[in-house]
Recover the amino acids of this structure.
């Protein structure tokens, strides 16, 4: 654990040396929130005021997905620059190196959630009770934890910068084909079904309920059990991608 903390400190040092990169990571989801709530809210919901309570939790969940890109890019960059080889030559475990990245990126995700929540409050968004709201934030970080390991594996498995860019492009369809911005009831039935089963949608719906905000129409198993799926989807991703990432790290030369 101490080794992981030291390696996480390396990332914090990069942020201090390059604050612009951290600022972009913090402000990009804020811009998405301002764009969707301020510019398109009236067209989507009739008024921005009606749309803000619905869209802010959705964008909070979406920001956990967008963070996957920075993790994947950083891991692949270390791999291509030979830094990963240096780590592997040291008497430290693969888990420590990868968990150090996870700790640093989770800290960054907390900063993102704080920044976006403040933005939401300035726009008029509110939650009903503190205790359920804290559970909602834990669910958001639970999803982020799982996606971090997906990003680590993809960063290690990508053959180069071009592959990373191609994977990054896929993040957008996954993010928008969800309930982050729209109720799936407004979509064609087959498309709405896909959106409902998106892991991002489960977290978005669950946190809307916990915040006491307007949520999507129920009636389907995926929507009615979104709180359960918000726990199970990240757990399933962790069960798959933690072993894959560790194994990939250990067999990079093979």
């Amino acid at each position: 654990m101490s080794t992981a903390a030291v390696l996480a400190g390396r990332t914090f040092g990069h942020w201090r040396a390059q604050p612009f990169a951290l600022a972009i990571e913090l402000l990009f989801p804020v811009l998405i929130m301002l764009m969707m709530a301020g510019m398109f809210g009236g067209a989507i919901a009739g008024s921005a005021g009606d749309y803000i309570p619905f869209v802010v939790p959705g964008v909070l969940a979406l920001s956990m997905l967008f963070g996957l890109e920075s993790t994947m890019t950083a891991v692949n960059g270390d791999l291509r620059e030979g830094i990963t080889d240096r780590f592997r030559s040291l008497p430290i475990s693969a888990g420590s190196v990868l968990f150090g990245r996870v700790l640093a990126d989770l800290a960054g995700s907390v900063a993102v959630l704080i920044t976006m929540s403040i933005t939401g409050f300035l726009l008029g968004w509110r939650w009903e009770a503190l205790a359920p709201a804290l559970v909602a934030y834990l669910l958001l970080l639970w999803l982020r934890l799982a996606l971090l390991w997906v990003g680590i594996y993809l960063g290690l498995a990508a053959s180069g910068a071009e592959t990373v860019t191609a994977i990054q492009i896929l993040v957008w369809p996954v993010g928008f084909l969800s309930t982050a911005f729209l109720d799936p009831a407004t979509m064609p039935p087959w498309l709405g079904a896909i959106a409902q089963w998106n892991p991002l949608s489960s977290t978005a719906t669950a946190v809307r309920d916990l915040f006491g905000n307007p949520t999507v129409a129920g009636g389907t198993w995926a929507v009615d059990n979104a709180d359960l799926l918000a726990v199970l989807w990240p757990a399933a991703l962790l069960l798959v991608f933690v072993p894959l990432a560790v194994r990939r790290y250990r067999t990079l030369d093979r």
In short: Residues 2-250 form one domain. The two ends are 27 Å apart (CA to CA). The CA atoms of residues 184 and 192 lie 4 Å apart. The mean pLDDT is 84.
